[in-house]
Amino acid sequence: MNKNTQVNATIIIIGNEILSGRTQDTNTSTISLWLNSLGVKVQEVRVIPDIVRKKNNYVFTTGGIGPTHDDITAKSISKAFDVKYEINKEAYKILENYYKPGEFNEGRQKMAWTPSNAKLILNPTSGAPGFIIDNVYCLPGVPSILKSMLGGLKNVISGGKPIISHTINLRTVESEIAKSLTFVQENNKDVEIGSYPFFRSRKVGVSIVIRSDEQSKIDVCNSQILKFVNQKKIEIIKSS
Length: 240
Fold this sequence. Notes:
Elements: E1 7-14, H1 16-19, H2 27-37, E2 40-48, E3 58-62, H3 73-80, E4 85-87, H4 89-98, H5 106-109, E5 113-115, E6 119-121, E7 130-133, E8 136-139, H6 143-150, E9 164-171, H7 174-186, E10 192-200, E11 203-212, H8 215-231, E12 235-236
Parallel strand pairs: 1-2, 1-3, 3-8
Antiparallel strand pairs: 4-5, 6-7, 7-8, 9-11, 9-12, 10-11
Protein backbone atom coordinates (compact mmCIF):
# COMPACT_ATOMS: atom_id res chain seq x y z
CA MET A 1 0.00 0.00 0.00
CA ASN A 2 1.26 3.51 -0.86
CA LYS A 3 2.66 5.17 2.26
CA ASN A 4 1.03 8.47 1.26
CA THR A 5 -2.43 6.87 1.20
CA GLN A 6 -4.56 7.49 4.27
CA VAL A 7 -5.53 4.18 5.82
CA ASN A 8 -8.55 4.05 8.15
CA ALA A 9 -9.93 1.63 10.69
CA THR A 10 -13.05 1.14 12.78
CA ILE A 11 -12.95 -0.45 16.23
CA ILE A 12 -16.03 -2.33 17.43
CA ILE A 13 -16.14 -3.09 21.14
CA ILE A 14 -18.54 -5.97 21.77
CA GLY A 15 -20.04 -6.69 25.17
CA ASN A 16 -23.03 -5.86 27.32
CA GLU A 17 -20.70 -5.40 30.29
CA ILE A 18 -19.18 -2.37 28.53
CA LEU A 19 -22.56 -0.93 27.61
CA SER A 20 -23.83 -1.30 31.18
CA GLY A 21 -20.81 0.49 32.59
CA ARG A 22 -19.75 -2.48 34.72
CA THR A 23 -16.49 -2.86 32.80
CA GLN A 24 -14.31 0.03 31.62
CA ASP A 25 -13.05 -0.15 28.04
CA THR A 26 -9.28 0.19 27.75
CA ASN A 27 -8.94 -1.77 24.51
CA THR A 28 -9.82 1.25 22.37
CA SER A 29 -6.76 3.11 23.64
CA THR A 30 -4.50 0.07 23.22
CA ILE A 31 -5.58 -0.61 19.63
CA SER A 32 -5.70 3.07 18.61
CA LEU A 33 -2.15 3.81 19.81
CA TRP A 34 -0.87 0.66 18.13
CA LEU A 35 -2.62 1.45 14.83
CA ASN A 36 -1.38 5.05 14.91
CA SER A 37 2.19 3.76 15.11
CA LEU A 38 1.52 1.72 11.97
CA GLY A 39 0.03 4.67 10.09
CA VAL A 40 -3.62 3.61 10.43
CA LYS A 41 -6.06 6.27 11.58
CA VAL A 42 -9.02 5.22 13.73
CA GLN A 43 -12.08 6.92 12.24
CA GLU A 44 -14.79 5.44 14.43
CA VAL A 45 -15.31 3.43 17.60
CA ARG A 46 -18.57 1.67 18.42
CA VAL A 47 -19.66 -0.21 21.49
CA ILE A 48 -22.34 -2.71 20.55
CA PRO A 49 -23.97 -5.96 21.74
CA ASP A 50 -23.47 -7.53 18.30
CA ILE A 51 -21.57 -7.07 15.02
CA VAL A 52 -22.35 -4.40 12.40
CA ARG A 53 -21.40 -3.88 8.76
CA LYS A 54 -17.77 -3.76 7.65
CA LYS A 55 -16.33 -0.33 6.92
CA ASN A 56 -12.98 1.39 6.32
CA ASN A 57 -9.74 -0.40 5.45
CA TYR A 58 -9.77 -2.37 8.71
CA VAL A 59 -12.40 -3.29 11.29
CA PHE A 60 -11.38 -4.51 14.74
CA THR A 61 -13.78 -6.20 17.14
CA THR A 62 -13.04 -7.00 20.77
CA GLY A 63 -15.00 -9.41 22.91
CA GLY A 64 -17.61 -12.09 22.32
CA ILE A 65 -15.28 -14.95 21.27
CA GLY A 66 -15.18 -16.82 24.58
CA PRO A 67 -16.82 -20.10 25.71
CA THR A 68 -20.18 -18.88 27.11
CA HIS A 69 -23.65 -18.70 25.55
CA ASP A 70 -23.48 -14.93 24.99
CA ASP A 71 -20.19 -15.10 23.06
CA ILE A 72 -21.74 -14.79 19.60
CA THR A 73 -19.22 -12.71 17.67
CA ALA A 74 -17.88 -15.52 15.46
CA LYS A 75 -21.37 -16.76 14.66
CA SER A 76 -22.62 -13.25 13.91
CA ILE A 77 -19.69 -12.48 11.61
CA SER A 78 -20.23 -15.77 9.76
CA LYS A 79 -23.79 -14.66 9.15
CA ALA A 80 -22.70 -11.17 8.08
CA PHE A 81 -20.29 -12.62 5.50
CA ASP A 82 -22.73 -15.37 4.51
CA VAL A 83 -20.23 -18.15 5.21
CA LYS A 84 -20.40 -21.32 7.27
CA TYR A 85 -19.84 -21.17 11.02
CA GLU A 86 -17.75 -24.25 11.70
CA ILE A 87 -14.93 -25.82 13.68
CA ASN A 88 -11.56 -24.44 12.67
CA LYS A 89 -9.29 -27.49 12.68
CA GLU A 90 -6.17 -25.45 13.45
CA ALA A 91 -7.87 -23.65 16.35
CA TYR A 92 -9.22 -26.94 17.68
CA LYS A 93 -5.75 -28.48 17.67
CA ILE A 94 -4.23 -25.44 19.42
CA LEU A 95 -6.84 -25.52 22.18
CA GLU A 96 -6.73 -29.31 22.54
CA ASN A 97 -2.97 -29.11 23.12
CA TYR A 98 -3.31 -26.11 25.44
CA TYR A 99 -5.66 -27.74 27.96
CA LYS A 100 -4.86 -30.69 30.16
CA PRO A 101 -6.58 -34.02 29.35
CA GLY A 102 -10.24 -33.82 30.31
CA GLU A 103 -10.28 -29.99 30.55
CA PHE A 104 -11.10 -29.31 26.90
CA ASN A 105 -14.86 -29.43 27.50
CA GLU A 106 -17.76 -28.46 25.26
CA GLY A 107 -17.68 -24.80 26.32
CA ARG A 108 -13.99 -24.46 25.52
CA GLN A 109 -14.46 -26.28 22.24
CA LYS A 110 -16.78 -23.43 21.22
CA MET A 111 -13.72 -21.20 21.02
CA ALA A 112 -12.52 -23.30 18.06
CA TRP A 113 -15.56 -22.31 15.97
CA THR A 114 -14.94 -19.54 13.42
CA PRO A 115 -16.27 -18.39 10.05
CA SER A 116 -15.24 -20.76 7.27
CA ASN A 117 -11.69 -20.16 5.96
CA ALA A 118 -10.91 -17.61 8.69
CA LYS A 119 -7.23 -17.02 9.42
CA LEU A 120 -6.19 -17.29 13.05
CA ILE A 121 -4.64 -14.63 15.28
CA LEU A 122 -2.39 -16.55 17.65
CA ASN A 123 -2.76 -16.01 21.38
CA PRO A 124 0.49 -16.29 23.39
CA THR A 125 -1.28 -15.69 26.71
CA SER A 126 -4.28 -17.96 27.05
CA GLY A 127 -4.28 -20.23 24.02
CA ALA A 128 -7.67 -19.29 22.50
CA PRO A 129 -6.98 -17.64 19.12
CA GLY A 130 -8.71 -14.70 17.51
CA PHE A 131 -9.43 -14.71 13.79
CA ILE A 132 -9.41 -12.65 10.61
CA ILE A 133 -11.99 -12.71 7.82
CA ASP A 134 -11.60 -10.27 4.95
CA ASN A 135 -10.74 -6.94 6.65
CA VAL A 136 -12.33 -7.83 10.01
CA TYR A 137 -9.97 -8.65 12.90
CA CYS A 138 -11.62 -10.33 15.89
CA LEU A 139 -9.81 -10.13 19.20
CA PRO A 140 -10.71 -11.08 22.79
CA GLY A 141 -12.13 -8.58 25.25
CA VAL A 142 -9.64 -9.13 28.09
CA PRO A 143 -7.21 -6.17 27.74
CA SER A 144 -4.03 -8.00 28.77
CA ILE A 145 -4.72 -10.87 26.36
CA LEU A 146 -5.65 -8.51 23.51
CA LYS A 147 -2.45 -6.54 23.98
CA SER A 148 -0.32 -9.68 23.83
CA MET A 149 -1.89 -10.64 20.48
CA LEU A 150 -1.26 -7.37 18.64
CA GLY A 151 2.44 -8.10 18.10
CA GLY A 152 1.55 -10.99 15.81
CA LEU A 153 -0.43 -8.65 13.55
CA LYS A 154 2.25 -6.02 12.98
CA ASN A 155 3.34 -7.44 9.63
CA VAL A 156 -0.26 -8.04 8.53
CA ILE A 157 -1.42 -4.41 8.70
CA SER A 158 -0.43 -2.16 5.79
CA GLY A 159 -0.59 1.43 6.98
CA GLY A 160 0.42 4.84 5.76
CA LYS A 161 2.70 7.24 7.57
CA PRO A 162 2.68 6.88 11.38
CA ILE A 163 0.45 9.47 13.06
CA ILE A 164 2.37 11.88 15.31
CA SER A 165 0.86 13.90 18.15
CA HIS A 166 1.98 16.90 20.16
CA THR A 167 0.29 18.23 23.30
CA ILE A 168 0.31 21.77 24.73
CA ASN A 169 -1.04 22.06 28.28
CA LEU A 170 -2.40 25.48 29.23
CA ARG A 171 -3.66 27.05 32.43
CA THR A 172 -6.85 28.46 30.92
CA VAL A 173 -10.44 27.60 29.99
CA GLU A 174 -11.71 26.60 26.54
CA SER A 175 -13.81 29.75 26.08
CA GLU A 176 -10.65 31.88 26.35
CA ILE A 177 -8.95 30.13 23.42
CA ALA A 178 -11.89 28.87 21.33
CA LYS A 179 -11.91 31.64 18.71
CA SER A 180 -8.12 31.66 18.24
CA LEU A 181 -7.93 27.86 18.10
CA THR A 182 -10.72 27.75 15.50
CA PHE A 183 -8.74 30.19 13.36
CA VAL A 184 -5.66 27.92 13.51
CA GLN A 185 -7.75 24.87 12.62
CA GLU A 186 -9.38 26.63 9.65
CA ASN A 187 -5.95 27.53 8.30
CA ASN A 188 -4.61 23.99 8.77
CA LYS A 189 -7.49 21.79 7.65
CA ASP A 190 -5.32 18.71 7.05
CA VAL A 191 -4.18 18.71 10.68
CA GLU A 192 -6.37 17.42 13.52
CA ILE A 193 -6.51 19.81 16.48
CA GLY A 194 -8.47 18.99 19.64
CA SER A 195 -8.92 20.72 22.98
CA TYR A 196 -9.59 18.80 26.18
CA PRO A 197 -10.35 20.44 29.55
CA PHE A 198 -8.75 18.97 32.68
CA PHE A 199 -8.72 19.61 36.42
CA ARG A 200 -5.47 19.15 38.35
CA SER A 201 -4.37 20.34 41.76
CA ARG A 202 -7.68 22.19 42.15
CA LYS A 203 -7.00 24.23 39.03
CA VAL A 204 -8.57 24.03 35.58
CA GLY A 205 -6.63 23.77 32.35
CA VAL A 206 -6.88 22.77 28.71
CA SER A 207 -4.78 20.31 26.73
CA ILE A 208 -4.45 21.12 23.04
CA VAL A 209 -3.56 18.03 21.01
CA ILE A 210 -2.19 18.40 17.47
CA ARG A 211 -2.18 15.26 15.29
CA SER A 212 -0.76 14.73 11.81
CA ASP A 213 1.41 12.33 9.82
CA GLU A 214 3.91 15.13 9.11
CA GLN A 215 6.07 16.74 11.81
CA SER A 216 6.41 19.95 9.76
CA LYS A 217 2.63 20.49 9.84
CA ILE A 218 2.57 19.93 13.59
CA ASP A 219 5.39 22.47 13.97
CA VAL A 220 3.44 25.08 11.97
CA CYS A 221 0.33 24.65 14.11
CA ASN A 222 2.39 24.62 17.29
CA SER A 223 3.94 27.99 16.34
CA GLN A 224 0.56 29.52 15.50
CA ILE A 225 -0.95 28.31 18.78
CA LEU A 226 2.00 29.50 20.88
CA LYS A 227 1.73 32.90 19.20
CA PHE A 228 -1.81 33.55 20.44
CA VAL A 229 -1.04 31.88 23.78
CA ASN A 230 1.80 34.37 24.36
CA GLN A 231 -0.32 37.28 23.15
CA LYS A 232 -3.03 36.36 25.66
CA LYS A 233 -0.36 35.77 28.34
CA ILE A 234 -1.69 32.29 29.06
CA GLU A 235 0.49 30.09 31.27
CA ILE A 236 1.97 27.00 29.61
CA ILE A 237 2.17 24.03 31.96
CA LYS A 238 5.47 22.22 31.59
CA SER A 239 5.30 18.43 31.44
CA SER A 240 6.99 16.88 34.45
